[in-house]
Specification:
heterodimer; A: 151 residues; alpha+beta; Alpha-Beta Plaits; seven-stranded antiparallel beta sheet; B: 19% strand; globular
Chain lengths: 151, 218
Amino acid sequence: MMDPHDVSAYASSVRINPNTPLSRKESEDILVKMVGRMAAECVRMGAAFIGHIKCVAYAPSGECLACSVTDMDGAVSCAGALRDGMTRLDLIVNVLVYGIDQGALGDHMERELVRTIESTEASASIMTFQIEKEDETRSDRRPSFITLTDR
Amino acid sequence: MPLHKPDDRARYETRREGGIGMEILIVSGFLGSGKTSLIVPLAKDLIATAGRRIAIIENDYGRVSADAKLINSSGLAVKEICAGCICCSLGPSLLKTLQELESSVGPDLIIIEPSGLANPDSIISTLRMHQPSVARISTIVLLDSSRFAAMMPAFDIPLRNQVAAADLLVVNKIDKTDARALGQVQQWLSSNFPHKAFLFSSRADRASLDEIRKRAWT
């Protein structure tokens, strides 16, 4: 049983190469849905408190879109915007949640990332950074590097 | 008005002998309290209105910082300190980064955004012990009024520590807070920190940003 005061962290860097360029709205929809799903599942898994679930997408040309959830109601706030015709999305995902096991949180986040990538019919790579609080029972699971090629 | 005066806030201040050293502004607050959303326009305003050289240090508990990327994309220079908290395990990294910035950039002001879990007083103690060239250390603490009722039962101690360390306390996200919840925040503050002045603020409130800027830099 997790102590609700125990914080679990997840961070990853993701590069998505969509098969067809994304419009500004499509990029935003992808991020909003993904961050919203991440939050909803954290609540379902028994999170005591969402510190933050953040995703920043940035383009090589400098535009940036940040989407985050900081509340248990899962409302997604966004700032910034990407341009139309995005052929590459670089994401940073950063999560701090209370009351969920570290390993379970990492598994959940990676599932959501893969689901998002699959929904965009893109090739992608996910670099998951070593989880900060060592979980001895899962010490073999980080760091990981997942590559999803054209599908 | 400066965030604190040399006479009454001497515990936070040291002066470099024979000159004025750089200043440090710590923008603290619990997770999701709006620190980055304040820092970006505040730094831009300070550069535009005071013409000062500013560097930002972003500390994230995670191994990679989303906020640093966000700040950087807004055209501001930022140094990241990741994978821990600068109020405890990463104190040495903070000092090293400060020294690098001081020698390479020579900023007038360094804005530090600690992790939302940080105790600002621990950061201040570290700086006071090891950074004698810092002319002034000021702390803005953001308190998220919209989640206050949910946070207090679980995070009473860290919230108290953060509020206690504030030179300027900003009760933030009032646009997302109903009157009853805002009253609870005020009640808690008046009971626990009766002498602590505070400002109300929200992301859309330009007037409060101006007021914060005035108090943060004179």
